[in-house]
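WARN retry 2 of 3 for item q-0093 after timeout on previous attempt; input resubmitted unchanged.
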Amino acid sequence: MRLLCALLLLALAAGATAQPAAPRSCRAVTVRYHAGQLALCCGGALCESRHPGGAPEWRIGWDAAAGRLEGAAQRRRADGSLAAEGRFAAGREDGPWRELHPSGKPALGGSFRAGAPEGTWTASYPDGGAMEVETFRAGDYHGPYASFHPGGAPWCSGQYADGEKAGRWVCRRPDGVVSAEGGFVRGDPRGKWLIREGDKVRRVSDPGFMPDMGLAY
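OK item q-0093 returned
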């Protein structure tokens, strides 16, 4: 998914799970996660960080004996609203994760396996409508892909194989008219392509350039 860093999901049976009590004393720890690094203060069974002004931001379970993140994780905005939630296992993101828009509508959702995206991920516009639906295998794009214009009209669709576009892809304008259509071999556009630019249509073979694929890499 473009942009869109998955922040953390807590798989809850009934919607709310108590977080560990805040540590009375803690030590500074910097840990890696999928969107970069986290600077946390860890003690007891909890790591946490705070916004400027003191409002809680990250709260993540901590295995003090192993010196690694372990268990439920949440991130909150300065106003207290939930931004993301998920889970760590053996120091890596693992299991379902989701990120929320400030409105509370879903922004991003999927699953990790040992720190890498796995299976289907869905990114959503601020109104909650689908933006992209992507498929991963061991952190690489692999499988079906689809993107959507604001309002829900199909945009681009195709397949990835081992991180590269493969096979037939087609992209459409919001009115449904095809804007690009052709095939990929190991990520390169090959064979016959239809490319529409405004009202002009070109039919080319082995384009030698990347047609506009909308949001797709």
